Predict the structure.
Amino acid sequence: MKSAASHARRSNFVNVFSERSIASHRRASTRIVKPIDELSSAARAILGPNGTARFDEFKSYPQGWDFGYGQPLSSASIASLDYFLALFGEFSTRPSLFLTRLGNLELAWEDGVGRIELEFFPNKVQYFLEANDEESEVPISHLPRLIERLRDGTSRSR
Amino acid sequence: MSRATCSPDENIVRAVTSAHWDPVENRVSSSLFKGENISVSRLEILPIHQLFEIFNRELVKPPERSVVGAGEINVGRLQQIGREFTHPLELTVEHDPLPTNPAHAEIPQRISKGLSKRIIDDLVLHRYES
């Protein structure tokens, strides 16, 4: 099995982003690879005051925060979430922000047919679509395809 | 050596931290039970208020971090959820007492997010009041 990272390196961004301008694609690509310590103001606006407060709290969690096992918040995960929120902001309910034991940010919300959860790794997104009982992952470079599914309705297309 | 297992009549709790529970939106992350060797505690051994003391002692606490609650479920109900899941799984809760928590037990099976979500839907949440 090939790693998600090698898959991401081989993927064709131009095809994936065929309807986006080269300029915006370049901006997006840069944001994927460069870890960041802060969410953009646009991302904070989508998360709202509660999500933003939770993000700020998670930044203070040290190594071992989860009964000795939790990793500190990953800067690369922040960048992945920020990139996602730059592409997708149409939540039917205000999403919740969580921190996983691996130090990744996780978003959860409902779309009318079930829970959606996305965990943002540095180079991939693991997703759970309750309506399909589907749990899988996509490389960051294929995130627009997952977003298409989220826009179409997760239980009706694969 | 195999460990003793909890009876279906027992109730167990899983500590819930602020990282896993968004009280404003009233959501618990499915990460709470995802994975294997999930730590739980047996209410037959210690009452909930003593378990909260243990949970708080064991956490490495930044200023704002805390145990915000505990999710309770009956072992028999947990096993029923596992058996009725799309991909059925025979769940067990095995005794694993620790020096710091004599009520400690583990669910050894690998739990998916989907199954975790089903379990969470059945939890009774006890909010921790410090």
User: Anything to note?
Assistant: The radius of gyration of chain B is 14 Å. The first helix of chain B runs from residue 48 to 58.
